[in-house]
Amino acid sequence: MRSYIHSASLVSEARRRGIRQAMLRINEARIRAIASGHKMNCRKYFETEANSRPNDWNRTVLKSCYVPYRHIFEMVRPNLDNIPAAELPAGLEVRPVRPSDHRVIWRAAREAFKDEPGFRSQTWSDEGLRWFSGSRWWTPELWRIAWDQDQVAGGVINMIDEEENKTFNRSWGYTAIIFTRKPWRRKGLAGALVAQSLESLNEQGVEQATLAVDTGNPSGALRLYKRMGYEIHSRYSFYRKPVP
Predict the structure, then answer these.
(1) Domain boundaries of the chain, sorted by first residue
(2) pLDDT tens for residues 154-177?
(3) pTM higher than 0.70 for the full model?
(4) Widest CA span of the chain, in angstroms?
(5) Interior/surface letters 144-161, b for 16+ CB within 10 angstroms, e for the rest
(6) CA 197 to CA 142: how far, in whole Å?
(7) CATH T-level fold of 75-235
(8) 31-59: per-residue pLDDT in tens?
(9) Beta carbons within 10 angstroms of residue 172's beta carbon
């Protein structure tokens, strides 16, 4: 399967005037042209996402025969007080991330996520790492990575988007990418790393923490995050339809 992802963003005063419908038609026409040059034997889909609350964009894509197939909760911890105490499993340690660790950590996360809904191999490729390392979200000094000697057991890739906080007049930190490799699951590792991450964000002076979790996550992540003090803030849906 190959997905062609697109979106259409408008300032609020330009909405409800048919502009998004026109943008969707333009997007689809461009995607059809691109897809026609990809001679591969697989299904091809238009794909987009939208907040699940009634809004101009999700009404537009539903009217255009897109079907929701995956849902994500955005969760927010409303403050960074009373962070639960959670110790690392025996034999593991968290240590500062070195440049030589970046690719090792990235590949460990790739392995942990490969069976999860929505996994994209391109995201977790070496090219994906190069893109991420050049972005404003690259803050390895905030990561909390657990090591079992020279093996990555799991981690939380944290970030603070100062530009976004300024734009939306808020003070959020992201406990964005939370992963545990199979041999170290169900030992309390994820909870311990999230607790350390919240402490780290608190030290940076942000007031709230946020993350996203797939509603179909089979690992019990939603229960863990609620236990760590996160609350459901909104839900996003992913939509797709076949490229003709």
Answers:
(1) 2-65, 75-235
(2) 999 999 999 999 999 999 999 999
(3) yes
(4) 60
(5) bbbbbeeebbbbbbbbbb
(6) 8
(7) Aminopeptidase (3.40.630)
(8) 999 999 888 788 999 999 988 777 778 88
(9) 18
